[in-house]
Amino acid sequence: MKHIINCLVENQPGVLARIVGLISGRGYNIETLNVGPTADPTVSKMTIVVPGDAHVISQVTHQLSKQVDVIEVVNMTNRRHLDRELILLRVASQDHHGRVEVVELASLFNARVVAVQEDSVTVQMVGNQETVADFLRLLKPYEIIDISRSGVIAVGREVIEHERAK
Amino acid sequence: MNDKTADKTTDQAQPQKTGAQCVIDGLVEAGCDVLFGYPGGAVLDIFNALYDAPFQFVLTRHEQGAVHMADGYARATGKPGCCLVTSGPGATNTVTGLATAYMDGIPLVCFTGQVALNMIGNDAFQEADVIGITRPVTKHNFLVRDADELPGIIAKAFYIATTGKPGPVVIDIPKNVQKQKTAAQPPKTVSMRAYHPDMPINPAEIAQFADLINRASRPLLYVGGGAVSGGASDVLSALAHKANIPVCTTLMAMGVFSDNDPLSLRMLGMHGSVAANYAVDHCDLLISVGARFDDRVTGKISAFASKATIVHIDIDRSSIGKSVRTDLGVHGYVKPVLEAVLPFVLAADHAEWIEQVQRWKERFPFTYPEQGDVIMPQFVIEQIDAVSKGQAVITTDVGQHQMWATQFFRYTRPRNFISSGGLGTMGFGLPACIGAQFGRKDELMVCITGDGGIQMNFQELVVAVEHQLPIVVVIINNGFLGMVRQWQELFYGRRYSGVMLSQHERAPNEHIPEAKKYLPDFVMMAEAHGACARRVTKPEEVAPALAEAFASRKTWVIECIVSPDANVYPMIPPGSHVAEMINRTV
Ligand SMILES: Cc1ncc(C[n+]2csc(CCOP(=O)(O)OP(=O)(O)O)c2C)c(N)n1
Ligand SMILES: [Mg+2]
Fold first, then answer.
1. H-helix or E-strand containing B211?
2. B521 and B395, same structural domain?
3. Which of A49, B173, B257, B533 could pair covalently with B247 via S-S, beta carbons 3.0-4.6 A apart?
4. What pLDDT score does A94 carry?
5. Residue range(s) defining the domain that contains residue B159
6. Which residue in chain A is spatially nearest to B191 when comparing CA positions?
7. Taking a C-beta distance cutoff of 8 angstroms, is the pair B163, B279 a contact?
8. What is the C-alpha to C-alpha distance for residues B283 and B175, in angstroms, rounded to an integer?
9. Measured from the CA of B404, which atom of ligand 1 is nearest?
10. Architecture of domain A82-153
């Protein structure tokens, strides 16, 4: 199972490398990784999607919380949360017919066509992990020329008491 | 350089000091009494400031030696070790030492020089990405970008190194930062938003823990390095005696519970005692105290302590349940946890269990084959114990001699057995012994080493000699990389590949034109380094040689030519269960 782990870290050089090195150095995989500033400029938020069983995830969260620069670690998968990913993809459309199909599919997923070329359409889509996966599955028959994914980001649904990781 | 000194002495009125001076002041502030190190271009400013430092500086002969010395000092005293090296090759030479300390949770702070900030990333002369290289082998590391940050960073480094699970911290200081002037003062207290080493005890966990102890009929304490760093020796003994719980320890915890105590089962694991390993297999409650279920301890994980409820006390939450299923994790420092549980533990005698364990102890003591004219290595260790009346502080390298040192010397105090457990670093023993001696000047330090291991950091002997340290290096010379040879004998059909230090009977592709008897000649080598030295080849020469060396208060090397084919038993083959234990005495 994939877990979404939100990690608040000191906004300092080298922290990203430390976190990534920690996870890969212990033989775990990172599926997506997103880093950005928070409302507090001294704090960055990293959202890490890690596949693994309960044991792996508990190791990853404990190892992360142990780091001197890590302020808080929350496994979002264990609580009510919203998650989103943005994808940009260019799909080949040889003819008018193909283009219509892709545009139709996109509109079913509330995705926007952001560019149209002679031979391709570029679509922007935002959704949670499931919707993104569904969309990509339905696009299988078409030729995807290029795809870029932002990585998953997530926020809790409700304010809960801050369970400090340490 | 002269300008610098002039600066420093003239501008008393000016509060500004250099980054280099901040390093010295930070060390003083941290209570450093000895710094181990090696200079170079990128730390010239720090060495210049060091010239007037109020603490001792020890020039080692290799940066690896400096880190191991700081490490040995820390293990012997419980205080953080300190070292200072230059950039590039100086810093990369520290990696093995840092990894050794990291694996065993040893507090030390290592200062590395770095090229000037504006040169970083340019492949400048003697530049290395020290932060990147040392990240996986340190508890934390800092690149100092501004001298204003330096006093704060140094204070944080010592705080991080010595609290929670201790570990090594690197401070990488670019050359321009060392020269930069600052008015920054060391902080009065250290607090870090993201680092909270204080660990409140959870009363519910304590209650459950006490309940498990009170209900157990065959409890066993399994004690690791956390009990040493946590100073838990006394409360551990109180708990064991109150409820009559036998105690076994890991390599890292030798002596934290006296080997002479009737409840002691000594070391467990691959080369541990039969009694300890049988007890693990039969106990119904295993209480892990600051140990981490290393694979050298557990063997086959699924069969480890299979009849037991497992309680794991650890300050490192990630360690709890990492390798072995845990029924109750107790998160916290071992000493306060044991202190908290002690009042709730009912006195018990566990008579049947104690009797059982006692029978195993009597039936399966550590033994070794009869010794004829050839010295048995185990005999040498016994003699070190006897001649020093059990008072020697032992350091070791890694290999067979290390295991014999755990089996045939009885440890009665914590911090008296100093050995690289987690990383298993050959070359650790001699520099660690020197560092330990600097920390505990009045005590007799004995480095038990192999003919392989001693050659990895022999150069540091000079440091012992020039400081007139009363350390005695005992080389257990079996002509082999013995531990590797033992595995080749047992598991690789006696195909001795790459293990012959002696010159005879090598594999065809290791052929040498002419075999020599003593190569290197350790006695000549020791004497060339200024030490007293003797080679002993007969059993009856061992005790007198040790007695002379121990009494002399000088630096000695005693080379013992021992049986080349002695093996370490008992042995539970890697990944196996105690039932597969090999226990031969021939
Ligand atoms: C730096 C390092 N390299 C290699 C090893 C692998 N190793 C473990 S024990 C051993 C043999 C040690 O030989 P020696 O020092 O003569 O000790 P003995 O086993 O013969 O007592 C070796 C090569 C190691 N532990 N450390
Ligand atoms: Mg040897």
1. helix B203-215
2. yes
3. B257
4. 77
5. 9-185
6. A68
7. no
8. 58
9. 21
10. 2-Layer Sandwich (3.30)
Distance CA(B209)–CA(B282), nearest Å, equals 20
Return the structure tokens found at A56: 């792996």
Taking the C-alpha atoms of residue A14 and residue B394, their distance in angstroms, rounded to an integer, is 40
**Does residue B369 lie within any of the structural domains?**
no
Output the CATH code of domain A2-78.
3.30.70.260
Q: In order along chain A (166 residues), what is the average pLDDT of each group of 10 residues? A: 94 92 90 94 96 91 93 92 96 84 93 92 95 94 94 85 44
Residue of B nearest to A11 (CA): B194
One domain for residues B134 and B267: no
Angle at B320 between CA B317 and CA B322, to 5 degrees: 115
CATH number at residue B509: 3.40.50.970
* Amino acid letter, residue B300: K
Q: Domain containing B328 — which CATH number?
A: 3.40.50.1220
Interface test with B, best of A66, A70, A75 (most B CBs within 10 A): A66
Q: B314 and B238 in one domain?
A: yes
What's the rounded Cα separation, in Å, for the pair A59 and A74? Answer: 13
Closest approach atom of ligand 1 to CA B425? 26
Beta bridge partners, B35, equal B57
Contact between residue B425 and residue B96 where contact means Cβ atoms under 8 Å apart: yes
Q: Which residue has the tokens 């699924």?
A: B302
Q: How far apart are the first and last CA of chain B?
A: 64
- Count up the domains in chain B and report the number: 3
CA distance A84 to chain B (A): 27
On whether both B485 and B543 belong to a single domain, the answer is: yes
Residues A98, A101, A105, A108: what is their CA dihedral angle, to the nearest 10 degrees? 150
The answer as to whether B479 is a domain residue is yes
The token duo for B249 is 């320890």
Identify the pLDDT of residue B584: 78
Which one of B139, B156, B175, B335 is the catalytic residue? Answer: B175
Cis peptide before B570 (omega within 30 of 0): yes
pLDDT above 90 covers a percentage of chain B that reads 90
The answer to the question of residue B64 being in a domain is yes
Candidate from A9, A17, A68 with C-beta closest to B140: A68
Q: What is the ipTM of this complex?
A: 0.87
Total number of residues shown for chain A: 166
Q: Which of A22, A62, A67 sits opposite B317 (nearest CB)?
A: A62
Residue B468 annotated among the catalytic residues of the structure:
no
Closest CA relative to residue A73, chosen from A113, A22, A24, A124: A22
Query: What's the rounded Cα separation, in Å, for the pair A111 and A84?
Result: 13
Q: Are B223 and B245 members of one domain?
A: yes
For residues B142 and B267, membership in a common domain is answered with no
Q: Are B339 and B401 in the same domain?
A: no
Is B296 part of any domain? yes
Q: Where are the domains of chain A?
A: 2-78, 82-153
Q: Between the CA of residue B361 and those of B241, B276, B357, B379, what are the distances in Å?
A: 18, 8, 6, 20
